[in-house]
Every structure is written in structure tokens, then in C-alpha cells.
Amino acid sequence: MLTIQSNISLKPYNTFGIDALSRYFIEINAEEDLQTLYQLAELQRLDKLILGGGSNIVLTQDFGGLTIKISIKGIEQIREDNAHVWLKVGAGESWHGLVLHCVERGYGGIENLALIPGTVGAAPIQNIGAYGVELKDTFQELCAVEVATGQKLVFSKTDCQFGYRDSIFKQHAKERYFITSVTLRLNKTPVFRTEYGDIQKTLEQMGVKEPSIRAISEAVIKIRRSKLPDPAELGNAGSFFKNPEILKIDHAALQTDYPEMPSYPIDTTTVKIPAGWLIEQCGWKGKRLGNVGVHARQALVLVNYGGGTGLEIRQLSEKIQQSVQARFGIKLQPEVNFV
After folding, report:
1. What is the pLDDT of residues 194-219, one digit of tens each?
2. Three-class SS of residue 226?
3. How many of the other CB atoms lie within 10 Å of CB of 115?
4. 55, 239, 263, 317: the active-site residue
5. Average pLDDT of span 153-162
6. In the prediction, which pLDDT does 226 show?
């Protein structure tokens, strides 16, 4: 049975810890709950906010509609062959919990994505990625329910139109679907990705001579914990901005003034610049403005020290964008969604 709550604080449901009210609130624990929801005509007219783990959202105001938290659980092996195993995972499962589940069973493909906050259902929206791996690399399909009609649909990898921290669900299909489950194809014989960031260096420090799924996941966890604050202790949404992609010719011009500017090749004409480096060069690392600021160890992370509002975080992000644009001519794009 669905329980409709009124005037609920969303502070426990977003990792920034922003205290915003939702006029109505419902938690969905099974796909059948969504079908029940469509029988409640009085709720259909309301604007809807769909929440997973709340790790990629900035609440800039109270929400006058219906917040729907997707908490559907379950991890089911639906197929297996000599090389792969397919897992169908409920949208409400913890992403990191899924990574640990796969590590324990020797299923490869997502170990580089350890400790990314949020739920499995939110992962395709963002096409989450880290250390040379993205969700789309193991993605098979997802199941969703159309918000307007209640119709059940299946989206293939092509349907999702994955891009860098992007998908159809952040573009013209934004807020149009409830994602209920995600199916991944994982590897029984993994291909290790250790060339990105400090993974190889950390493995050496750990005394690991032969990489393994477990060792790589532990190295990633170690790196992330050394750089990123725990949202349970300090409100944040992880990486706030995308790493910008610019033309190699523009990068070469910038290197005249900034020869130490790091970059990573994407293709023959484009490179990726670490947004954290750009922000740090503009003097924002560790800077605090009232109740919000930029983390002292990672300039890519904006934090809420307590009592900060979504508007304060948005204003801080805009100041950072303006300073990076003025100095480097590069426009940073947020990874997070503003509501």
C-alpha cells in the first residue's frame, strides 16, 4: 500500500543535505507501486520529482509537487554463458553495493566505478564513469515506466544515446520516465583498466603485483576516500562539473601560457582538460563562502558545511564558471541537476 506524506523535508534524501520541502512524497518499493500510483487521479496533475540516491541534485527551492523516491531492490542473474553473466538490478539498489556484489563473485567490468554515490537507477541517466570506465561499457538494457502514461518500456544501449556524463534521460527525455531496473553484462574474464589516475601507483603502494577485480576496486576506494569527502559527514554531490573537452589546437594555444596544463586525448582532434585543475588555478580550492565552499583536497567538489542552501551552491558554481571562462576561455558544465 502506498503511503502519501505531506510537507516532507528532502534533507535526508539528497547528499548535499539541503533542507527543502516537498508538498507530497511517496516511496516506490516495487514496480507494482507505480501502477497503483496511476490509479490515483488526484496525483496525476502534480509536477513530479524523481529521486534515487539524491547524489546528483541541487535543490534550489521547495518543491510544490510530488516527490517520488525509487527504492526498488533486487539483484537477479538472468543469463550466463562462458564469457559473461547478465545481472538485472533494481533501480533502488546502491551502486557501490552492486560493485561490491560483483567483486565478491569475480564479475568484471565495474570495479573502477567503486564508491560512486547514488543508486543503480540513476547510473544510466548520468552515464556514470571514472578511471577510464563508463556505465555504457557494461550496459545491456533498462526497464522504465513512462511518467505520463504508466506504459512499460525497455531501452537498449542505442536508445539511451549515451555520451560523456550524458544520456537521453538528461536531454529530451528528462523526467519523462521512472527507471525501474538496469541490466548489465559483466565479464568472467575481466580486462583490467589501471592506466587512469593513480590506480597503478596505488596498486604498487598496496604491494599488488598482479591486478585483480578486488585489488582494483580497493585501489579506487582508497583513492576516492583520500580525495573526496563522505557525504554523510560533509554534504556534497561528488564531482560537480564535467571535465571540458576542447580542440587540440585550442589546447596548444593555451599551453603557450600554461605549459603545465594537463590533458587527456579523446580522439585525433579533441582533448579533455581536468576541471579540477582549472578551478584550482583560479584560486577556488579550499575557498569558503558562508555555509558553502570548494573542498580543500579536491577542487572539483563543492560542499555544504551545514545550513547551506541550494541557491548558495548554485551562486558559488556560477562564480567558478565565470572565473574559469575569464581566465581560460573554457565554459564549465555542471554534472549535477538543479531543481
Report:
1. 887 788 889 988 998 888 999 999 99
2. helix
3. 19
4. 239
5. 96
6. 87
5-70 topology per CATH? 3.30.43
Annotated catalytic residue within 165, 218, 224, 312: 165
Phi and psi at residue 154, to the nearest 5°: -120, 130
Sheet holding 152-156, edge to edge: 75-80, 84-90, 177-187, 139-146, 152-156
List the grid coordinates of 30: 516495487
Q: Residue 318 and residue 297: Cα distance in Å, rounded?
A: 20
In the residue annotation, 239 being an active-site residue is answered as: yes
Give me the residue spans of the domains in the chain. Answer: 5-70, 75-187, 235-338
DSSP 194: -
235-338 classified as CATH 3.20.20.70: no
212 is catalytic: no
Task: Say which CATH class 75-187 falls into.
Answer: alpha beta
Q: Which residue has the cell 580550492?
A: 285
What pLDDT, in 10s, does the model give residues 254-306? Answer: 999 999 999 888 888 999 999 999 999 999 999 999 999 999 989 999 999 99
The reply to whether 335 belongs to the active site is yes
